Amino acid sequence: MLERGRRARKSLQLLAATLLLASLSALAQQQGRPATLEPRDFESNEGYYQLAWQAEEPVRLVESPGRDFVDATVLYSGTDTGHVVSGKPDGIWHYRLESADGNRVLSELATITVRHHSLERALLFFALGVVVFVATLGLIFFVRPDRDERA
User: Fold this and answer.
1) Residue ranges of the alpha helices (H) in the chain?
2) Confidence (pLDDT) at 50
3) Backbone CA torsion sign across 54, 109, 89, 120
4) Does residue 32 contact residue 103 with C-beta atoms inside 8 Å?
5) Quick one: 96 exposed, middle or buried, by C-beta within 10 A (0-12, 13-18, 19+)?
6) Parallel, antiparallel, or unpaired: how do β-strands 49-54 and 41-44 relate?
7) What share of the chain is helix, strand, coil (3-state, %, to 5)?
8) Per-residue pLDDT tens for 46-65?
9) Range of weakest confidence among 22-31, 50-59, 74-83
10) Is-above-0.70 flag for pTM?
């Protein structure tokens, strides 16, 4: 009985050591990963979109109309993992993650193309909505059942 207890304790110690080594290995692999910024290449017809990222340290989300980031603007700085961008006019917008102090680029470039719907298309959708609304009102007020189904 005593021998069985020793074997069980030794097995538990071996299992604990294996789990500890696996955890440390996974943590070491994460430390060397570059930050990722998504979506990489995206088109928006509304002028708003969400950028998401994974990073191991606080970051700055930087936006620029040019790929060279000469006229760059910091949109966010901190430890969150995403940011919603809205109200953008038509154009091509470039984003990247930098270290919180701005000394290192942490991610690859993400490019968002904003191309709003045309006025003609918006008016067409509005007109279709009016037709559906009027048809619904007509069904409600002018179509009456001949008999009461509840009786």
Assistant:
1) 2-31, 119-142
2) 94
3) negative
4) no
5) buried
6) unpaired
7) 35, 30, 35
8) 899 999 999 999 999 999 99
9) 22-31
10) no
